[in-house]
Specification:
about 280 residues; Ribonuclease iii, N-terminal Endonuclease Domain, Chain A; 2 domains; 13 helices
Length: about 280
């Protein structure tokens, strides 16, 4: 019969606000897992350059709702509230940075670039650079399906983390993390400016509606080297959303994405779908 006993580290976890782990870490064999999680959270705070004054907020932000189903944890409800807050916070900080640093841009361009900085794809990329996936507490089903690295889960977790930082350290802490962790995204988005970006717009629409990311299949490639011709289909899940052609693969993909966006606009017109979360 297994021996149950509390360790000093268990009390430390309780003080840190990580109560959902109590049922797991009182059993001796599960202690290494709990210690590894704590190490990941410590490394994460080092990467983002911010240490939580109230670690329970970090615990709440990094607890996926699938974990609650298996453990009865209360944090996932708070995680979704933090996600809501983080979405607004990131949008505000991104807007502030753009207004201060790109004074010549008008509202339309500012809005488009802010969206590129804070859409699901951008957030997922930043989350991966942070190593956020390894820090999440998820259920066994999500774990086994590779959910830690799903764009939607990573983006939601990053928003929740930013919401937690806002509550713990205020706007100054958020600004520092944004400048530190979003530097590459800022550079890319500002360089693109208000340029037409149908592939990015299509990906943002899909992620905003809980759909898988679009991918592009080359249907035809022909012509001599100086006059190539490409025909490409854009596919979401199992559905072909559009086709496009061009003298380069990139041009064909852009045209396919435009066709898909037209299809979605028609669908919205006749069904009333908004394309929002």
């Amino acid at each position: 019969m297994p021996t149950f006993r509390r360790r000093k580290s268990t009390r430390m976890w309780i003080r840190a606000g990580c109560r959902p782990f109590i049922n797991n870490i009182t059993r001796e064999p599960d202690m290494p897992e709990a210690n590894e999680q704590q190490e990941q959270w410590t490394l994460l705070q080092e990467r983002i350059g911010y240490e939580f004054a109230q670690p329970e907020r970090l615990a709440a932000a990094l607890t996926h709702r699938s974990y609650a189903v298996e453990t009865g944890a209360t944090e996932p409800a708070e995680s979704q509230r933090l996600e809501f807050l983080g979405d607004a916070v990131l949008g505000a900080v991104a807007a502030e940075w753009l207004v201060k640093n790109v004074p010549d841009w008008q509202e339309g361009t500012l809005t488009k670039v802010r969206s590129r900085l804070t859409n699901g794809a951008a957030l997922a990329r930043v989350a991966r650079q942070m190593g956020l996936g390894a820090c999440l507490r998820v259920g066994r089903g999500v774990e086994q399906s590779g959910g830690r690295e799903q764009d939607s889960i990573l983006a939601d977790a990053l928003e929740a983390l930013m919401g937690a930082v806002w509550l713990d350290g205020g706007v100054g802490a958020i600004r520092k993390i944004f400048f530190r962790c979003f530097a590459e995204e800022i550079q890319t988005a500002v360089a693109a400016g208000g340029d037409d970006n149908p592939k990015g717009d299509l990906q943002e629409w899909m992620q905003g509606n809980g759909q898988p990311a679009p991918h592009y299949n080359v249907l035809e490639e022909s012509g001599p080297a100086h006059a190539r011709f490409f025909r490409v289909a854009v596919v979401v899940g199992e559905e072909k959303m559009g086709e496009g052609s061009g003298t380069s693969k990139r041009e064909a993909e852009m045209n396919a994405a435009r066709e898909a966006l037209k299809h979605l606009e028609l669908k919205k017109k006749f069904t009333g779908e908004t394309g929002n979360k």
